[in-house]
Amino acid sequence: MYLVAYDGSEYAKGALLRAVEYADLKEIDVEAFSAIPDSVKYARDRQWISTDGEYDFDEIVQSLHEQVTTLAPMATFNYRKLPKRAPAGEIASEIKDRAL
Fold this sequence. Notes:
By secondary structure, the chain is α/β, with parallel strands linked by helices. The chain is 48% helix and 19% strand. Helix 1 links the parallel strand 1 (2-5) and strand 2.
């Protein structure tokens, strides 16, 4: 399985498309994975919500899921909700744990 850390950025979208391309050749599954802090500031910094938009964690998850489904219908999407004040390195640790 190929695991793609996905946050909706242009880099993540490109990585997902590349993973799907390579996976098709080898008949391997692809999973897009998001580690999402439960934080309004983090969501605004990632442009998941506008500066004056309402914060709705489930809506953010749904939006990321829809992006993955649109870009790569054959990929699966999973996520992990992190605390609002996740310690430094927590997102990377979650992605690493998922990969293992």
